[in-house]
Amino acid sequence: MSDYKPKFVSLALKNAIVYIILIVVSSALIGYFLYRKSSAIIVNSSIQQLEHDLEVLDVRFISYIEQIRQDILYLSRSPYLNDYLIAPNSAQREFNKVKLSNDYFSFLSTKPDYGQLRFIANDSLGLEKIRTDRLKGHIFIVPSDALQRKGSSAYFRETILLPKDSVYFSEIDLNKEYGKISYPIMPTLRAACPLYVNGKVEGIIILNTILNNFFEHFKKSVHSNSELYLFNDIGHFIIHPDSTKEFGFEYAKLPYAPLEFKLPLDFLTTIGNEIKSVDTKTHIYYFKKINYPRSNYSLYICLGAAKDVILSPFYDWQWSVFVITLIIILLLVFLALFWMRKQTNGLESITKSMISFPNSLSVSDLPLNRNDEIGLLANTFQAMSSTLQQNIQSLADAKASAESANKSKELFLENMSHEIRNPLHSIVGMTRLLEDNNPRTNQLPFIETLKFSTHNLLSLVNDILDFSKLKEGKIQLQNEPLQFYDLINKIYKSYIFEAVSKKISFKLICDESLKNLWVNLDALRFSQVLSNLISNAIKFTPGYGHVELNIKNEIKNDHSVFLLIQVKDSGIGIRLENYKLILERFQKENRQDYLKNESGAGLGLPIVVQLLELFGSTLKLDSTFGEGSIFSFEITLESINNPDSNTISKEAQVSFFEIPRSILIIEDDPQLRMLYQRIFENGHNTIKQLSKSLEIGELAVDQKYDLIITDFWLENVSLFDLFEQIFSYKKQDGLFIAVTGHHDIDAVLKSSHYLLDMVIQKPISPDKMISEIEYAFTHMGFQIPTLEVLYKDYDYDPALILSALKLLINEWKDAREQLSKAILSRDIGMKDAVVHKLANSLRRFNLIKLENQLIMIKFEPFVNSKQLESTNSDIQVKMHQCEMFFENELKKWL
User: Fold this and answer.
1) What span, in angstroms and rounded, lies between the C-alpha atoms of 552 and 806?
2) Which EC number(s) are documented for this chain (predicted)?
3) Sign of the C-alpha dihedral, residues 493, 498, 500, 504?
C-alpha cells in the first residue's frame, strides 16, 4: 500500500479570494435584502403588533367582566345577606340590615370602580331595600326615604327570571339619574344576580360599575401609533379616538361605525372569535368580537393604523437603495452560486454520511482523496465514526447491565418491604392484643421491649427504602398540622428504655414557649431525623454517660418559629477530618470497644443530611474526639393555630362498631386472619375469611359486604386481575381496602384504577386501623346519578341514548384529568372552568353533593400538599365511580 499523501492546499486560501470580493460589496448586498424585505417586515410587524394588542385587549376586557361576575356572586352568597333574608321578624331584619349595609359600605371602599350596590326586593314595586352609593369619591348609605322603585326596570325584570347563581349583565351605557345623563360622563355596566331562599326569588342584588378608570387604562395599553375603537352590534361607538362620537345612541345620533370603517352590510355577522381585517386605501383595521355575557347584544373591538405612519421610515430611502441593489443582484448572485456550488459538493457527501450515521452506524461515499480541509474532514470523520461505533456498543452493553441491576434493586426493595412488613404487621397487632389482655406487671417490660424492637426494625426498613428514594429525588415533604411538643415527647420517650438499659442519662430540654405550639410539619421525616441522631448518640455513648436532646426557640412571630435543635452526647466523638467521609460512605470511627454487642448502625447520617436538605436545613457537628459530639441543625417551621376546631369531632364520626357490619377478609396469612378476627369480632359483626384466590369465585353473586379487606398478594399471586370481581361484592356504601406491605401505596391505588377506597400500609396498629376505617366511613358518600332526565330528553330512543352516554363518559374522563391537574397545581381558574363545564350534568343528574364539594375546593396558603393530594384522590374516586355507573348504564342499552 502506497504511503503517498496528496499535497495539502488550504480550503481557507481558496475561499479567501472569493470572500474578499464579497466583503467589498457586502454593504450593497445588505441594502438589497433590506429593500426586498423591509417593507414586508415593517407591515407584518405592525400587523402582528395590532393582532397581539387586540388579543391582549380582549383578554383584559373579558378578565374585567369575569372579575365583576365573581364579585356579584360573592356578594350574593354573603352570610350577612342570608341572615337578612331569613330573619324571623322585622326587628331582627332591621338589625341584620344595618350589618349588611355596613358590609356593602366596606365592599365599595375596597372597589373604586364600583359606583353603586343595591338590594331590590321581589315585590310588585321592586323597591330598593338597601343602597350604597359612591358620589364624588365619597361612599354613603342611602336613607330609606330616598330609595326608589325599580320594578319596571329591564334589569330587574330580566334578573328575577334567571336561575340561581346566574349573573345578568346590562348593555354599556351612560349613567343617568332620574332619566338624565349624569355629568361628568360615566360609562356604566350593571351586573345583577337573583337571590333564592327555599327555591323562591326574594329579590336581586345589583352592582353598578363605573367604567371610566377601566377605559382609561384600556386606552393607555394601546401602542401610540394605533387607534382604539369599541362599538356595539348596532354600530354605536363606546370608545373612539374622537370622544364626540362616543355613545351616540344616548344623544339620538345615527351609528358611525359602518361609515367610519366602510364595512360591508353583513361584515359584523361574520366576526366570530377569530380576528377579521379590513384594508382601506389609508388604514388597516383589525376587528374581534368580545365574548360579552349577554344575549342579543354584542361588542366589537377594533385596532387601526394609518399606512403612511407604518411605512414612513421605508419611504425615506427606498429609491436610493433600489438602483444599487439591482446591480448587486446581477453580479453577486451568479458568483456566489457558482463558487459555493463547487465548494459544497464534497461537503454534501460528508453531510449525508453524518445524517445517516446515527441510524446506520456506517459511512460511505466520503471524499477521502481530496487535498484540502474537506478531505481532512472526511478522513477524520471516518476515523471518528469507527471509534463511535465501538463506544456506542460499549454504552449499549453498559446500559443493559445497569438496567438489569436497577431492576434487581427494585425487585429486592419491593420483596424486602413486602416480606418484612407482613410479619411486622402481625407482631404489631399481636403486641396490641397482649396489651389489651391485662398483662401481669412483670410482663410489661417484655411487651415494651417487643414494641421497641418492632419500631427499630420498621425504622431500618424505612431507612433502606428512603435512602434509595432520596438518591433518586422521589421523596417530598407531606406537612400536616400537629402539636410540636407532643411529637418531640413521643420521640424522646421511645428511646428512654434503650438509654436506661445502657445506664445512660437521657434528658429532654425544651423551651416552655414550645409546649403549646402547633406547626405544619412532616412528622414522619422529622421523626426520622431526630430518631437517627438520638439512636447514634445512645449507641456510641458508653455506660454511665449522658445524652441530651435540647430544643431552643430562637425567633418566633405570628407565622413561624426558628428552632435550634441539638443532640449532645458524651461518647467517643468524631475526628473533624473524617466527618465528610462518614457522611459520604457512612464509615465508623474505631469504636470496637463500645460496639462489641451492637447489631449495626443503619444508614443514619446520610439520610439525616438529605432529609434536612428537604427541610431547608443543614447538619452541623461540634465534636471533640474522646469527649463527645453535638449534632445540631436550625429549622424554620410554619406556626398555626390549634386546628382542632376545624376537624370533625369524635361524636360526629361514624363508629365502626355502632351497627352490625358484614366483613369480607381476603388474607392467606393465618396469623393475620386471627388478628383481624380479634379486631373486628364484637358479637354482631358477620365476618367471612378467604385464604385462597379460588374461594373468591365461590362467593354468592348476591352477597354484598360493608367492608372488604384484602392483601395485594394471595398465595404469591397478584390479586390485581381480581379487583373488579372483588369490588362487585362491595355494598354501594361500603369500603374496599387493601392492606399491603408494598413500599409504594400510591402505585397500588393507581394500579387498581381507583376501585380501592383506601390503601393501608403494613404494619399498622389495630387502633390506627379502626380509626382510619371509621374516618373513611365518615367521609365517604357517593351519590348515584339520576339518568332518568337524560332518557326522557331522548324519548327513550336507544340509539340516541347510547350516543349521549358515550359523549358523557368521554366528557367526565377529560374533566377528571383536568381537575386532577388543576388541584395539584393549585390552578383555581382551570378548576372553576372545569366545574362550570360540568355544572349542567351535575345538576341534571342530581349530584348536588359532588357539585358542592367541587365548588368548595379552595387553594388557601394553609392548605398543604398532602391535603390537596387527599382531596384530589377523593374527587378522583367519586368521579371514577360515576364513570363506572355511566359505563354500566351504557352496557344495559347495548
Assistant:
1) 62
2) 2.7.13.3
3) negative
Output the pLDDT for position 17.
60
Q: What is the pLDDT of residue 474?
A: 64
Angle at 284 between CA 282 and CA 286, to 5 degrees: 155
Q: Per the structure block, which three cell numbers stand in for 62?
A: 373579558
Whether 481 shows a pLDDT value over 90: the answer reads no
Question: Are residues 818 and 739 both part of a single domain?
Answer: no
- The residue segments making up the domain with residue 845 are 788-893
687 SS3 class? strand
Q: What is the pLDDT of residues 795-851, one digit of tens each?
A: 888 888 888 899 999 998 999 899 888 888 888 889 889 888 888 888 888 787 788
Stretch among 4-18, 93-107, 734-748, 764-778 having the lowest mean pLDDT: 4-18
Confidence of residue 413 (pLDDT cuts 50, 70, 90): low
Spatial contact of 751 and 720, defined as CB atoms under 8 Å apart: yes
Q: How far apart are CA 314 and CA 170, in angstroms?
A: 47
User: What secondary structure, in 3-state letters, does 566-616 show?
Assistant: EEEECCCCCCHHHHHHHHHHCCCCCCCCCCCCCCCCCCHHHHHHHHHHHCC
Helix (H) or strand (E) holding 705: strand 705-710
Say whether both 623 and 669 belong to one domain: no
Residue, of 747 and 697, whose pLDDT is higher = 697
Are residue 582 and residue 731 in the same domain, yes or no?
A: no
For residue 319, the tally of other CB atoms under 10 A from its CB is 9
Q: What is the CATH number of the domain that holds 686?
A: 3.40.50.2300
- Residue-averaged pLDDT of the chain: 80
Q: How far apart are CA 220 and CA 242, in angstroms?
A: 15
Which of 158, 126, 120, 192 lies closest to 296, judged by CA?
Answer: 158
Q: In angstroms, rounded to a whole number, what is the distance separating the alpha carbons of residues 554 and 778? A: 41
Count other C-beta atoms under 10 Å from residue 19's C-beta: 13
785 phi/psi in degrees, rounded to 5:
-60, 140
331-369 b/e (C-beta count within 10 Å ≥ 16 → b): ebeeeeeebeeeeeebbebbeebeeebeeeeebeebbee
How many domains does the structure of the chain reveal?
4
pLDDT at 226: 87
Report how many helices (DSSP H) and strands (DSSP E) the chain contains, helices first. Answer: 26, 28
**What pLDDT does 182 receive?**
83
- Confidence band (pLDDT; 50, 70, 90) for 313? low
Q: How many CB atoms lie within 10 A of CB 728?
A: 11
